[in-house]
Specification:
five-stranded antiparallel β-sheet; about 30% helix; single chain; about 220 residues
Length: about 220
């Protein structure tokens, strides 16, 4: 999947001046435009966009960059309603697979790409790192589950159980049984397909009287 990096920078500059901090929905549009793809709006499918037979699962994380070469990011992958008495691990993996396959069937896809955007604003500097990789086939990974968390070759000390998880089931806000699936991944800075800063004024922070004058002229 190819990115127009200059286009990505230009769109970041444009939307950052309109929104201040770019929203997740806008990032989906930016990524689709940057790959020459089609945006899939709404929160129904795992795929937020598509290019040919590739799905784009876009996750934006508002976070300052670490000073080192590695950064650990957590993001909500999907909602996962599960009965409390069910097998949590099997239910989480089934949800992830079902949502992927639903996108594949609906849009004629055969591969899901995860696009993770780490971004932050520092005054007039808008900082962006984009990572893109083929989504793992969760059903083929030998996770070990402990306390609603999935691990791969876990350190079974107390500290290991606290920090080494890869997938986590967390409480949601919609109802007592509505939960979210959180994915954690560590990135190497060198693996970013884009790493840039654009200068953009805080044009979104308009004076109220000026806004009134502009609105009156509409």
């Amino acid at each position: 999947m190819n990115f127009d990096i200059e286009g990505l920078k230009a769109l970041t500059w444009f939307y950052a001046q309109r929104e201040g901090v770019i929203t997740p929905d806008t990032w989906e549009k930016i990524i689709s435009k940057s790959t020459g793809g089609e945006h899939i709006p709404g929160d129904v499918y795992m795929s937020d966009g598509k290019v040919d037979t590739f799905g784009q699962n876009d996750k934006s994380v508002l976070k300052n960059f670490t000073k080192g070469d590695k950064q650990t990011i957590s993001f909500v992958q999907c909602r996962c309603p599960l009965d409390e008495s069910s097998n949590i691990g099997e239910g989480v993996i089934k949800t992830l697979v079902d949502k992927r396959e639903e996108s594949f069937k609906e849009f004629g896809l055969n591969k899901m790409m995860d696009v993770v955007i780490v971004h932050n604003r520092d005054g007039e500097n808008y900082n962006v790192r984009v990572f893109c990789y083929e989504q793992p086939k969760y059903e083929e990974i030998g996770y070990e589950w402990h306390g609603g968390h999935a691990y791969v070759n876990p350190d079974k000390s107390k500290k290991g159980w606290e920090k080494d998880w890869k997938i986590k089931r967390v409480s949601g806000d919609d109802s007592a049984f509505q939960t979210c699936v959180l994915i954690k991944k560590t990135f190497n800075k060198s693996d970013a397909i884009a790493d840039f800063t654009v200068k953009c004024d805080n044009n979104y922070d308009v004076d109220m009287e000026e806004a009134k004058r502009q609105y009156a002229g509409v």
